[in-house]
Design brief:
alpha/beta; Rossmann fold; 2 domains
Length: about 300
Protein backbone atom coordinates (compact mmCIF):
# COMPACT_ATOMS: atom_id res chain seq x y z
CA UNK A 1 0.00 0.00 0.00
CA UNK A 2 1.01 3.60 -0.35
CA UNK A 3 2.44 5.00 2.90
CA UNK A 4 -0.25 6.43 5.12
CA UNK A 5 -3.21 5.26 3.03
CA UNK A 6 -5.25 2.14 2.41
CA UNK A 7 -4.88 2.39 -1.39
CA UNK A 8 -2.97 -0.48 -2.98
CA UNK A 9 -0.44 0.32 -5.72
CA UNK A 10 -0.75 -2.62 -8.16
CA UNK A 11 2.38 -1.59 -10.09
CA UNK A 12 4.57 -2.05 -7.03
CA UNK A 13 3.09 -5.44 -6.18
CA UNK A 14 3.33 -6.60 -9.81
CA UNK A 15 7.03 -5.86 -9.98
CA UNK A 16 7.90 -9.00 -8.00
CA UNK A 17 6.36 -11.21 -10.68
CA UNK A 18 7.95 -9.26 -13.52
CA UNK A 19 11.38 -9.48 -11.89
CA UNK A 20 11.00 -13.23 -11.38
CA UNK A 21 10.29 -13.77 -15.08
CA UNK A 22 13.21 -11.57 -16.12
CA UNK A 23 15.58 -13.46 -13.84
CA UNK A 24 14.47 -16.84 -15.18
CA UNK A 25 14.74 -15.78 -18.83
CA UNK A 26 18.19 -14.30 -18.25
CA UNK A 27 19.44 -17.26 -16.20
CA UNK A 28 18.42 -19.85 -18.77
CA UNK A 29 19.07 -17.70 -21.88
CA UNK A 30 15.52 -18.31 -23.14
CA UNK A 31 14.49 -17.05 -26.57
CA UNK A 32 10.76 -16.38 -26.42
CA UNK A 33 8.84 -14.58 -29.16
CA UNK A 34 5.33 -13.11 -28.86
CA UNK A 35 3.12 -11.67 -31.59
CA UNK A 36 0.89 -8.79 -30.46
CA UNK A 37 -2.02 -7.94 -32.77
CA UNK A 38 -4.03 -4.74 -32.65
CA UNK A 39 -6.80 -3.83 -35.09
CA UNK A 40 -7.72 -0.30 -34.02
CA UNK A 41 -6.39 3.22 -34.54
CA UNK A 42 -7.77 4.38 -31.19
CA UNK A 43 -4.85 6.26 -29.64
CA UNK A 44 -5.38 5.17 -25.99
CA UNK A 45 -5.50 1.54 -27.16
CA UNK A 46 -2.38 2.02 -29.25
CA UNK A 47 -0.62 3.63 -26.29
CA UNK A 48 -1.54 0.64 -24.12
CA UNK A 49 -0.26 -1.74 -26.80
CA UNK A 50 3.06 0.11 -27.02
CA UNK A 51 3.39 0.09 -23.23
CA UNK A 52 2.70 -3.66 -23.15
CA UNK A 53 5.33 -4.26 -25.82
CA UNK A 54 7.86 -2.30 -23.75
CA UNK A 55 7.13 -4.33 -20.60
CA UNK A 56 7.55 -7.62 -22.46
CA UNK A 57 10.76 -6.44 -24.09
CA UNK A 58 12.12 -5.30 -20.71
CA UNK A 59 11.99 -8.85 -19.34
CA UNK A 60 13.73 -10.29 -22.39
CA UNK A 61 10.72 -11.44 -24.44
CA UNK A 62 10.80 -10.50 -28.13
CA UNK A 63 7.43 -8.79 -28.58
CA UNK A 64 6.44 -8.11 -32.19
CA UNK A 65 3.54 -5.62 -32.19
CA UNK A 66 1.65 -5.49 -35.49
CA UNK A 67 -1.30 -3.38 -36.59
CA UNK A 68 -3.71 -5.34 -38.81
CA UNK A 69 -7.06 -4.60 -40.39
CA UNK A 70 -9.81 -6.27 -38.37
CA UNK A 71 -11.04 -8.33 -41.33
CA UNK A 72 -7.51 -9.70 -41.76
CA UNK A 73 -7.09 -10.60 -38.12
CA UNK A 74 -8.40 -14.17 -38.35
CA UNK A 75 -5.96 -15.12 -41.12
CA UNK A 76 -3.04 -13.54 -39.25
CA UNK A 77 -3.94 -15.54 -36.11
CA UNK A 78 -4.21 -18.80 -38.06
CA UNK A 79 -0.86 -18.16 -39.77
CA UNK A 80 0.75 -17.40 -36.40
CA UNK A 81 -0.61 -20.66 -35.01
CA UNK A 82 1.44 -22.50 -37.64
CA UNK A 83 4.62 -20.45 -37.16
CA UNK A 84 6.91 -22.45 -34.87
CA UNK A 85 9.02 -19.33 -34.15
CA UNK A 86 6.04 -17.67 -32.39
CA UNK A 87 5.49 -18.93 -28.83
CA UNK A 88 2.62 -16.69 -27.79
CA UNK A 89 -0.16 -14.59 -29.35
CA UNK A 90 -1.67 -11.52 -27.70
CA UNK A 91 -4.75 -9.93 -29.30
CA UNK A 92 -6.01 -6.53 -28.15
CA UNK A 93 -9.77 -6.51 -27.64
CA UNK A 94 -12.36 -5.28 -28.35
CA UNK A 95 -12.15 -5.67 -32.11
CA UNK A 96 -15.75 -6.00 -33.32
CA UNK A 97 -17.33 -5.52 -29.88
CA UNK A 98 -19.68 -8.45 -30.41
CA UNK A 99 -19.59 -12.25 -30.52
CA UNK A 100 -17.09 -12.08 -33.35
CA UNK A 101 -14.50 -11.29 -30.67
CA UNK A 102 -15.34 -14.56 -28.89
CA UNK A 103 -14.90 -16.37 -32.18
CA UNK A 104 -11.46 -14.79 -32.66
CA UNK A 105 -10.38 -15.79 -29.14
CA UNK A 106 -11.05 -19.38 -30.05
CA UNK A 107 -8.96 -19.18 -33.21
CA UNK A 108 -5.82 -18.77 -31.10
CA UNK A 109 -4.18 -22.15 -30.56
CA UNK A 110 -4.25 -23.00 -26.85
CA UNK A 111 -0.49 -23.60 -26.95
CA UNK A 112 -0.02 -19.91 -27.80
CA UNK A 113 -2.97 -18.41 -25.92
CA UNK A 114 -1.29 -16.02 -23.48
CA UNK A 115 -4.58 -14.63 -22.20
CA UNK A 116 -6.07 -18.12 -21.63
CA UNK A 117 -9.35 -17.01 -23.20
CA UNK A 118 -9.84 -19.89 -25.63
CA UNK A 119 -12.24 -22.74 -24.92
CA UNK A 120 -9.39 -25.14 -24.09
CA UNK A 121 -8.31 -23.17 -21.04
CA UNK A 122 -11.86 -22.06 -20.20
CA UNK A 123 -13.04 -25.67 -19.93
CA UNK A 124 -10.15 -26.50 -17.63
CA UNK A 125 -11.05 -23.58 -15.40
CA UNK A 126 -14.74 -24.45 -15.30
CA UNK A 127 -14.06 -28.10 -14.45
CA UNK A 128 -11.33 -27.15 -11.95
CA UNK A 129 -8.77 -29.11 -13.97
CA UNK A 130 -5.49 -27.55 -12.89
CA UNK A 131 -3.17 -29.39 -15.29
CA UNK A 132 -1.98 -28.09 -18.66
CA UNK A 133 -2.70 -31.44 -20.34
CA UNK A 134 -3.71 -34.96 -19.41
CA UNK A 135 -0.24 -36.47 -19.29
CA UNK A 136 1.50 -33.69 -17.37
CA UNK A 137 1.74 -32.25 -13.89
CA UNK A 138 2.38 -28.81 -15.36
CA UNK A 139 -0.11 -26.16 -14.25
CA UNK A 140 -2.92 -24.95 -16.49
CA UNK A 141 -3.08 -21.32 -17.54
CA UNK A 142 -5.61 -18.96 -15.96
CA UNK A 143 -7.04 -15.80 -17.59
CA UNK A 144 -4.83 -12.81 -16.89
CA UNK A 145 -7.16 -10.27 -15.23
CA UNK A 146 -8.95 -12.72 -12.89
CA UNK A 147 -5.55 -14.14 -11.96
CA UNK A 148 -4.24 -10.60 -11.42
CA UNK A 149 -7.03 -9.91 -8.91
CA UNK A 150 -6.25 -13.13 -7.04
CA UNK A 151 -2.55 -12.27 -6.93
CA UNK A 152 -3.26 -8.76 -5.61
CA UNK A 153 -5.35 -10.26 -2.82
CA UNK A 154 -2.54 -12.73 -2.15
CA UNK A 155 0.05 -9.98 -1.91
CA UNK A 156 -1.94 -8.04 0.67
CA UNK A 157 -2.51 -11.16 2.78
CA UNK A 158 -6.18 -11.72 1.96
CA UNK A 159 -5.80 -14.89 -0.13
CA UNK A 160 -3.69 -17.61 1.44
CA UNK A 161 -2.66 -19.85 -1.47
CA UNK A 162 -1.02 -22.30 0.95
CA UNK A 163 -4.38 -23.63 2.13
CA UNK A 164 -6.97 -25.61 0.19
CA UNK A 165 -9.72 -22.97 0.35
CA UNK A 166 -8.00 -19.56 0.61
CA UNK A 167 -11.14 -17.47 1.14
CA UNK A 168 -13.43 -19.96 2.83
CA UNK A 169 -16.71 -18.54 4.17
CA UNK A 170 -16.12 -15.09 2.64
CA UNK A 171 -18.84 -13.34 0.66
CA UNK A 172 -17.83 -11.65 -2.59
CA UNK A 173 -19.90 -9.50 -4.94
CA UNK A 174 -18.72 -9.04 -8.53
CA UNK A 175 -20.29 -6.57 -10.95
CA UNK A 176 -19.28 -8.08 -14.31
CA UNK A 177 -20.08 -11.51 -15.66
CA UNK A 178 -18.23 -11.44 -18.95
CA UNK A 179 -16.76 -14.72 -20.16
CA UNK A 180 -13.36 -13.02 -20.17
CA UNK A 181 -13.18 -11.66 -16.61
CA UNK A 182 -16.25 -11.70 -14.39
CA UNK A 183 -17.46 -15.26 -14.81
CA UNK A 184 -13.98 -16.86 -14.62
CA UNK A 185 -13.27 -14.81 -11.50
CA UNK A 186 -16.53 -15.96 -9.89
CA UNK A 187 -15.62 -19.57 -10.69
CA UNK A 188 -12.10 -19.22 -9.29
CA UNK A 189 -13.15 -17.54 -6.06
CA UNK A 190 -16.05 -19.90 -5.43
CA UNK A 191 -13.76 -22.86 -6.09
CA UNK A 192 -11.57 -21.44 -3.34
CA UNK A 193 -14.36 -21.26 -0.77
CA UNK A 194 -16.17 -17.97 -1.32
CA UNK A 195 -19.86 -17.41 -1.79
CA UNK A 196 -19.96 -15.18 -4.88
CA UNK A 197 -22.81 -12.94 -5.98
CA UNK A 198 -22.36 -12.17 -9.68
CA UNK A 199 -24.24 -9.27 -11.28
CA UNK A 200 -24.65 -8.18 -14.88
CA UNK A 201 -27.43 -6.60 -16.95
CA UNK A 202 -29.33 -9.91 -16.87
CA UNK A 203 -29.50 -9.97 -13.08
CA UNK A 204 -27.71 -11.82 -10.27
CA UNK A 205 -26.39 -15.36 -9.96
CA UNK A 206 -24.93 -17.06 -6.91
CA UNK A 207 -21.76 -19.14 -7.35
CA UNK A 208 -20.95 -21.80 -4.75
CA UNK A 209 -18.19 -24.34 -5.37
CA UNK A 210 -18.03 -23.11 -8.98
CA UNK A 211 -21.69 -23.99 -9.58
CA UNK A 212 -24.05 -21.11 -10.48
CA UNK A 213 -27.58 -20.97 -9.10
CA UNK A 214 -30.44 -18.58 -9.53
CA UNK A 215 -30.92 -15.99 -6.80
CA UNK A 216 -33.25 -13.05 -6.27
CA UNK A 217 -30.82 -11.16 -4.03
CA UNK A 218 -30.79 -7.41 -4.58
CA UNK A 219 -27.77 -5.20 -5.14
CA UNK A 220 -28.34 -3.62 -1.71
CA UNK A 221 -28.47 -6.98 0.09
CA UNK A 222 -25.42 -8.38 -1.70
CA UNK A 223 -23.28 -5.31 -1.03
CA UNK A 224 -24.18 -5.20 2.64
CA UNK A 225 -23.28 -8.89 3.06
CA UNK A 226 -19.97 -8.64 1.22
CA UNK A 227 -16.46 -8.93 2.60
CA UNK A 228 -15.04 -8.13 -0.86
CA UNK A 229 -16.60 -6.05 -3.66
CA UNK A 230 -15.13 -6.24 -7.17
CA UNK A 231 -16.38 -4.05 -10.02
CA UNK A 232 -15.65 -3.97 -13.74
CA UNK A 233 -18.46 -2.13 -15.49
CA UNK A 234 -17.06 -0.05 -18.38
CA UNK A 235 -20.00 2.35 -18.53
CA UNK A 236 -20.61 5.77 -17.05
CA UNK A 237 -24.28 4.79 -16.74
CA UNK A 238 -23.49 2.29 -13.98
CA UNK A 239 -24.72 3.62 -10.64
CA UNK A 240 -21.53 4.12 -8.66
CA UNK A 241 -21.29 2.25 -5.40
CA UNK A 242 -21.57 4.60 -2.46
CA UNK A 243 -20.07 4.12 0.96
CA UNK A 244 -23.57 3.84 2.46
CA UNK A 245 -24.12 0.60 0.53
CA UNK A 246 -21.48 -1.52 2.27
CA UNK A 247 -20.03 -2.09 5.71
CA UNK A 248 -16.97 -0.17 6.88
CA UNK A 249 -13.87 -2.28 6.32
CA UNK A 250 -15.10 -4.01 3.18
CA UNK A 251 -12.29 -4.60 0.67
CA UNK A 252 -13.06 -2.91 -2.66
CA UNK A 253 -11.48 -3.53 -6.07
CA UNK A 254 -12.15 -1.63 -9.30
CA UNK A 255 -10.84 -3.12 -12.55
CA UNK A 256 -12.91 -1.03 -14.96
CA UNK A 257 -11.35 1.86 -16.89
CA UNK A 258 -14.15 3.91 -15.32
CA UNK A 259 -14.30 4.09 -11.54
CA UNK A 260 -17.38 2.24 -10.30
CA UNK A 261 -17.09 3.65 -6.75
CA UNK A 262 -17.82 7.07 -5.31
CA UNK A 263 -14.72 9.18 -4.66
CA UNK A 264 -14.82 8.82 -0.87
CA UNK A 265 -14.67 5.00 -1.00
CA UNK A 266 -11.19 4.86 0.54
CA UNK A 267 -12.43 6.57 3.70
CA UNK A 268 -14.69 3.60 4.47
CA UNK A 269 -12.74 0.62 3.18
CA UNK A 270 -10.10 -1.48 4.82
CA UNK A 271 -8.30 -1.70 1.47
CA UNK A 272 -9.08 -0.09 -1.89
CA UNK A 273 -7.50 -1.31 -5.14
CA UNK A 274 -8.44 1.30 -7.79
CA UNK A 275 -6.99 -0.54 -10.80
CA UNK A 276 -5.40 -3.87 -11.65
CA UNK A 277 -3.79 -3.17 -15.04
CA UNK A 278 -0.12 -3.49 -14.03
CA UNK A 279 -0.76 -6.85 -12.38
CA UNK A 280 -2.72 -8.02 -15.44
CA UNK A 281 0.28 -7.29 -17.66
CA UNK A 282 2.54 -9.08 -15.16
CA UNK A 283 0.28 -12.15 -15.34
CA UNK A 284 0.37 -12.04 -19.16
CA UNK A 285 4.18 -12.05 -18.99
CA UNK A 286 4.07 -14.88 -16.46
CA UNK A 287 1.63 -16.87 -18.63
CA UNK A 288 3.94 -16.42 -21.61
CA UNK A 289 6.84 -18.00 -19.73
CA UNK A 290 4.58 -20.83 -18.51
CA UNK A 291 3.37 -21.53 -22.06
CA UNK A 292 6.96 -21.69 -23.26
CA UNK A 293 8.07 -23.98 -20.43
CA UNK A 294 5.03 -26.27 -20.64
CA UNK A 295 4.32 -26.52 -24.34
CA UNK A 296 7.24 -25.24 -26.43
CA UNK A 297 10.50 -25.99 -24.67
Amino acid sequence: MNPGTNIVDPARLAQKYVDAVREEITRDSLKIRVLGLIATIDEPSLAYARATKKKFNNVGIDYDLQHVERLDLEKVILDANQDHTIHGIFVYYPVFQNQQDDYLRNQVNYRKDIEAGSIYWTQKLYTNDRHANTDSEQKALLPCTPLAIIKLLTEIGRYDENVERPINDKTVTIFNRSEVIGRPLAMMMSNDGARVYSFDINGPLLFKNAIPEETDITRAQALMESDIIITGVPSAKFKKISTSEFRDGTLCINFSSISNFEEDVQEHTDVFIPRVGPMTVAMCIRNTLRLYRNLHE
